[in-house]
Amino acid sequence: xxxxxxxxxxxxxxEKKRWGSLPAGxxxxxxxxxxxxxxxxxxxxxxxxxxxxxxxxxxxxxxxxSLACLPLSNYVSPPFSSLSLSLSSPAASVGVMITASHNxxxxxxxxxxxxxxxxxxxxxxxxxTRLANASTETLGKVVEEIAEAAGLDPGLPSKVLLARDNxxxxxxxxxxxxxxxxxxxxxxxxxxxxxxxxxxxMVRCVNTGGRYGAATEDGxxxxxxxxxxxxxxxxxxxxxxxxxxxxxxxxxxSMRKVMGGVRGxxxxxxxxxxxxxxxxxxxxxxxxxxxxxxxKGVEFLAGDRCASFDGDADRIVYFWKNQDGxxxxxxGDKIAxxxxxxxxxxxxxxxxxxxxxxVQTAYANGGSTAFLEKLLGVPVACTSTGVKHLHHKAASxxxxxxxxxxxxxxxxxxxxxxEKLSVAAKDAGVSEAVQRAASLLYAMSQLVNxxxxxxxxxxxxxxxxxxxKKVETWGIxxxxxxxxxDRMVVKTTDFERNCVSPEGLQEAIDTxxxxxxxxxxxxxxxxxxxxxxxxxxxxxxxxxKNSENSRWVSHIQPSGTEDVVRVYAEAExxxxxxxxxxxxxxxxxxxxxxxxxxxxxxNNFL
Length: 606
Hints:
By secondary structure, the chain is an alpha/beta fold.
């Protein structure tokens, strides 16, 4: 290890000059990296700079086969046929983000970003903990042990990309990070103040030679705004409006900049807590989720749609207030369900199969799991808590959706999915419906941040989906069951949206839907009553499409595995949704040969 001796001696001298001889520490590198009060974090950040320089050497020249053979992106240049680490790059790059996310402003933190934008791998989390806790006297020894274990060459170049959120302590910690990284032989590129997802994006772009996107702020904003308009190419009847609580963090500036490329006729954003107040002080996604209440600084009426970011904009939750003044939270589980529902609907229109899965943790709402598995038939995988576990599992599907209940998540589109969607979107030999579905999903793959959960891109994804579904929010799911003698009696067409058997059932559904006050007009126009109430019965998934304006109100579908059918209904209020669902279920029961008791709210809703 003689080659490391000069480097190690320089590190030891610098540390003693700054802090003297310090004993061993007790820091622990976790999913969020290291976090502490900012005034106690200096030595740890200095050493993370060293670690990042070592990690960059370890990843130089590595490729990721899961990103091979991606199609040409519509939104980035130059053209490419594959996306992997750029072997022509003189040095591999890792990222380091200085942030404490939703923690109070007096705290700060630091974490390392892998070359393709993922979280630091487990082995190097252990290295990080060892390095951060070494006494001054053992620092050199620990560095040499890590270098030997990872088989590192001190002569290899390395590069560290760094950014910080808008905490006052960030600039001082940035200087310590750069010092440690440069003494360990790395070249540093400081992106300044960014959201955490933006840094993940930058790292991925740099290490793919620009194939994932342009590694600049403007490149990030242009990619998201362009993808949003590709996903929603037609101007809606009226613009959506969402009030965004940015937690007085860096996400406020990011949201404002990306909206510079989004046309106001499509979407309007009203920023609150945009950075002019105290970071995370009674605001932000964690405050809203934990307290089940609105953040300070956000004035909203019943029906106003609102969203909250956390301090570094890698989490998002939605909330609103019903007509009774009750606070309603739409968390990560509901965002995942909405995304999965939209993707599932588009996949049904395609002539080829792509696997779709949702990844949750044990903390996920059981109702969302039931909705996904029993109503959509979408596989749900459960992993340990921690974003890295969800991300890894989601990558095993062609399209993997993952969100923690706290609002951190994204949608991953694998190389096979992107290639097939890209080809189908441009294939003149397929129907217009197939082209449109493929185009929507491909645009969605460009809109979401494939590296990490991103509040800004997730908000644009949700808003695009709501525009397509022509509703202003999404609501509560309730499951109910009853059996029929033979599920195959129920036959559907138009991608399972129009029931053609038993005779007379679709006409009865249409009559029931039309009888509900405002039930159809609710899905056709924007009105004060905001919430889309959804009730589920596992008799038949009842949805009926209004062909004139493509808005869902009811639809029926047999189960693929057992003699039950599923019913789905939408209405203006929860009471109307429940009533409509039971009425449609009773009609299915009568005409399709139901067994047991006639379905009612009490004996069939779960």
